[in-house]
Structures
1.
Amino acid sequence: MNTNIIPPQKIKIFNYELSVEKKGRKKYYYQLNKDEAKEFGHTHDKRPIELNETSQIVRRILNTLSGKITVKSDDGIEGLVSDEQIKNKIMQSLTHIDQALEGYELNRESIELKQAEEEKEKYLEEITKKADEFQDFLIINNISLHTFIWYICEWLSGGESKNSMIGLICHLSTYFKIKPVWFLTLGKAGEGKSVIDNNSQVLTPNNAVMNGRISEKAIYRKTIELGERYLDGKILTMKDLGGSRDIEKWMDTLDRYKELTTDGITEFELVSDTPDELTGERKTRFFIVKGNPSVCLTSVNTESFDDQIMRRGVNVSPEATDEQVKKFYHFNKGLIKEERRRILNDELLLFHAYIEYIYEYYHDIEIINPYWTCLEKWFKNSEYYKSSLSLYPSLVEAVTLLHYHDRETIIFNDKNYLVSTKFDNKLIADLFNPSQGMSESSVRVFNLLLKWYKPFSYDELEAYKIGDITLRDADTFFTVGEVKYKTSRVKALSGLPIGEIINTLQNNGLIEAVDKVNRGNKNIYVLSEYEPLESSNIIFDDDMINDYLEDIEYMYGIPPRGVSDIIIRENRNKTSDNSIGDLKLPPWFSKSPLVSVPLYTGSPLKSAEGGFVYRPSPPSSPLKSAKNNLSEEV
């Protein structure tokens, strides 16, 4: 809190309004308005009580009002107010407004506390209204929350829905103050890393993201202004750290953020820019920053990141193919561009308000995941197992909290517990792979490639190049087209986005491009690795779940029946509507990263004029919000 600043204090001078704002220790800003229109503004080093009749500000006010102020006598006769009368009124007003400034200084704490309470109340009313509108929007358009997120991701860009969703869930874990999770987008130059980074931030409320590229002096100023916990729950964006030089430049800052992420506190030592007037020495200030922020960044240089950075979060690589990116730029024009802008300005902002509402009212609720042991078995072989013990369960909690309106609550000993579902755990397993960072579909396709193709033979490639064999004859190299042909013959793999999968396998170093097809620009790929990948599916084992229910009783005191009844209801009602509902996807949409979500495969509707017809904006007065909170009192 800066005690040298006082917000504008206002007073009427006839039909004009004078406001005085204290902007510094000896800095006052005077402004004269009429009918909310500014007449003039002036900065002065004297407070109102110190001004005399000959001061510049008094003369400017007098000149402005002179000859313009009239009054009516009791007889109804209208006459001008003399300059002397106006001057007296100005001096009286300056005395009153100085008293208002002094009163604010004396009662600053209570005044600002009241103002903060009023602003918070207004903010809560606004986000509550918009959160209800968002839930109504889902009902009206017959779409589930997780499918809505995928739909928004598709409109953001081409081919990066999965990575964008991963980034959002990481940021929600930080924002909901479950666990700060760093989100690192790593890859080669020009692959579209910043697109993923930007998407993840756009999906997150504005009050969750802050610029992380600031100096220690800037952090000190922010701490003085906003308090020592101003970074708590924030996502600090470092943007693109292009290489070793950028990383080295910001490593001290990253080290501070690492301390905050892990310990929740860091101490700064700041040397003053100006020497002391008496001693000539530069004073050293010590200040503390508290809180648990996370970091999001992009970089081409993964070797410069130590394990302390890598194990603090999740890293992804761009997956979008050239064709997907081309389709985005090809179609993102005219009516489609306008529709995209409307969706991001209207529908996405409702989603932001919904997230903010959850934080304000539910972020401190405790979450019970009855499938914790199944989740632990899923990530047991991950590279950073000890870090994963807190990482993946936290991501599941973030998904559970995001679906708070559709999750059951246990009330036990006057305390509320939100219960995670199989879906929450499976969503994390579908999006995150603790070993390879790939989807289950990518794992399955790669393991089939190991069966279909042998180690690369230059002789076979040469035979193809001179026309002795065809692509379909080859058994040591392949193209996207050939893999599409082979997988189309496997019923369970039909319709997969093979282009995206091949790109993912290449980014993960499992295959590589060695040449181009004859008379074309398509890549020829070969295997780089020959060991099968383990499945990333999560298995819900009934025995493991039942054993963990007994542990829940030991940890929380909740009898197993309290949670098992919820599991039974979940199993009974495990079908859910995962369709795209009444919404329309952009022309560049790709395969959903959620295995259980069917795609909307219809073509965009055509109007009589031949243009695209999109769903209209949601009604201004939607249906009353349907609250689906279910409670189980144990």
2.
Amino acid sequence: MTDLPSPVKAQPRLPIEVCERVIEAVYTDWYYSVSMSLATLSSCALVCRAWRPRAQRVLFDYVLLRDKDALYDFAELLDASPELGTYVHTLELRGYLHVPYSPVVLFLTALRGKLTNLAVLYIYGVHDAEKAVNPLPEGEKELPFLPIYRYFPSLLTSISHIRRLDFADVRFPSFGDFARFLNTLSNLKELYCYRISWAVLGLEPVCMAKRSSADSRKMFLPNLEILTCFDMDEQGRQRLLSALGPSLGELWINFPNNPPAEPIHRPRVEQESPSLALNLRSFPCLDRLVCFIAPIPQPDQMLESLRDMLVSWVPSSDDVFGDVSPSQRYLHLGPRSRRAFKREDYVALLRTIGPVVEAVLCRKETAESDLQDQTSGDTDDRAETDPCRSGLVVQDLGDRLEWEDWWRTAMADCFPTLSRWNRLYVYPTQIWNPEDLWEYHDLTPQDYADRLQAVADFAEARRRRHSTRDVVKKFIATRGVLMHVRQNRKRYQTYTKQELFITPGTHANRVQDPHPIGLDIQRPLAMSLLWSCS
């Protein structure tokens, strides 16, 4: 009788640690890939017992809730398995938020005390494109703003430990509600605001009043390090900036600012219109200023506000503020939307901005002294001094690799001083949104140059054609006037001859000169002859 094979414990083909790394790599927090990632992770959790803990840990790291039904289902799941709540580090509330049962208002009570490790909160409303695809059910109507109540900020203390907050397409009842919402989250280090608005501006709330920096606990967002403000009401944006403390080290804005189109009720007290320039003097640690540039409708006014903002950010030699060395300070420029530009249009805009930027970022006295040394011939004895007080980063160009040299040459022409001192950094292939492409993105640099030359030739030919057409029109008009004058002259000559020959005995050869001067002379003579005959 043959011996039966002894049972052997099955060994996995790969170590479990490798499988866990693969499971972790499945997930991505890019919104358009989250649904696919969550489905894949759910399948991983059902493969075997060894995969389940790691798959669940990654699966519940990022929780996306779209409405109140999904919120209550998730709350019931946490009641049944409380340990899952400890896995949640990021919570996103995305959907119709301006409705009576908004998940933004309900989640604080439904999930109170269950998300102990929550670090990031996303609150994203529905923009117009999504509303067209996924409208509200029939019979439901969207409210004009977020339905928060008086004691809502007190509930935010349960998540006061979060480090990052993202807002997008959210409208508050008043600016004071927005400020009190933020004031409760005193541990915030990163705040991102996209298209935030309010129905009533009101007076400046008490929580934003400037206090002594001796007690940071009484300051407004005392730990904030990164702030992004896109498309916010200008007066509200300046209020927010003026309330922040010196901890801010990074500021992202769009230029020019594009505030929301919704009407805002402002206080009856007449106030001066806010300046378009941001005052950054109260942020000595601000070492990174990021400006995303859109087409500028009023270049002169916008360039002046850009200059004033940069002057307040980069301290001059006489200023005592500023804790950041020139080697650590960077200005970042990028296109707000590449599809809004042609490549040559964006370069032309930067060429206009270039002198304004270099006038602020580069010391004038150093450049003048260098010029004097060159004229006096002392350049060998004295080394040149770097005039740059900040570096410049041109980012998010999102182009293909064959365009790299073209972009670097164009940017060097726009910012020659910064380029000369190696303080210009260009990233032609850096891209955040792959769907945002330049116009004529698929052309090669040579094809693009040929196209520009063809457009220029066509414009020149059209200009010449219009010029020729204008000459012809002038010639025709001039010829018409001359013909009209000639007809009048002939008519006048005929009339004069008739006057000369009405008296018998006169001869036709008495008036021989047909020119206008002769006509002027002969007419009085003929009249005198007529009077003498009578």
3.
Amino acid sequence: MSDPFAILGLNDTATAAAVRTARRELAKRHHPDAGGDAGMMRKINQAAGEALQAIANSASAAESGSQSVSEFHDEPTGVSRDVPSFTVEALPVETFQALLVVSNWIGEVLDDDPPYRLDTHLHEPAQCWCRLELVPDAGASTVSITLANEAGQLVPDIEQVRDTWIEQLNRYDWR
């Protein structure tokens, strides 16, 4: 694949937030539900995933190379991303509403940008900060998960968190 940042219209110094914003904007124009091409949308999603991975890898390399053992940082000890994580067979508005209800079952809502972003503090399966990002996907919604924790705490297993969201969504009354 060519440069993922170029596909998204960004340079290689872009932040993760800029990558997510670019992906969201491109999805509005290129998603099949908006009259776009499914192949192009796959290319955009793949580029966004690769760009986010490159940013995470460069941040990890910079941190490990610049920190001394005695330094203390009041920031998350780690961030875990799953892009894309799972798909829900409902449009983003319906999916967001279900995730909003479920978030109150397993945690609490911290911030939202309906119907595309939901920030929560989870109590189940483990205490952590969790961001869910929704992208329309051919009559359905693709959900990506980002996890972080406070200093000194490990980030929970992202697959376990994903499975908890899916299990709870399956309990939700979609009528």
